[in-house]
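U., I forgot to send this yesterday:
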Amino acid sequence: MAIINIDGVDLPRVSNYKLPRFDLDSQDTNRNELGILQRDRIRQGIYKIELEWMGITSSQLHLIDSAIEPVELNVTFPAPTGRKTKTMYAGDRNVEMIKYDDNPDLIRWNISFNLVEY
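Result:
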């Protein structure tokens, strides 16, 4: 079973996987004149998956890039309480060529990006 599955596509084994969660506050959240936070939290526990693949082939890079191309993704991933499926979007992608060769099969890449829950 793949660690990350996007819309039914199993992605290659990920090199780095982080699973932070964050809260969303309304625009009314601010600090008063005494510096005390007046918080209006409207949603909590939003998932953001930080992913990185290192040393992958061009075909693996293409598979990952194609999977995260749509605006909206159904992502299945491991969480401390079991596997979850959430609707997410892909953030900015960072792609780096780490090995070049005249033979395209020997070129290697790193890619990293975040998947953020809607």
